[in-house]
Design a protein that fits this description.
Length: 172
Amino acid sequence: MAVQNNKVRVSSETELKDRLVAINRVTKVTKGGRTFSFSAIVVVGNEDGVIGYGLGKASEVTAAIAKGVESAKKNLTKVPVLKGTVPHEQTAKFGGAEVFIKPAAHGTGVVAGGAMRAVLESVGITDVLAKAKGSSNPHNLVKATILALSEMRDARTVAQNRGISIEKVFKG
């Protein structure tokens, strides 16, 4: 696994688990009538800090999910996970969806709904408090959650960026 600007290239031996977040039946009206197809949004993660999402469209559900998984594997991001929770509070907005993610004590569990829960569990977070505000559109919620997670920084990263020791990060 190689990390470059928060983007991750994963080798084939890394086990990524996929979760279906939402599936929609979409219709295209043609001269000959209606043509139905399916749109699926899928989240993949190794439950150890790597997450990605993808969108797949096909005339059958299984093909749409498979396309979504392939798309998600091309779009992976590394996220800091500390002792099963996030390092600090974070908000992010994508489209009409706004998310708020807050660290929680061990044993709290994942307190989040729907699309946010799938993303947080796929990245390997076991204890977190999360709230979705605004739109409940699963596409925007997934994108906002991944945006919030990718903006998080752990103490080691902050110390490296500032050129100081980790102890000074907490004293300052």
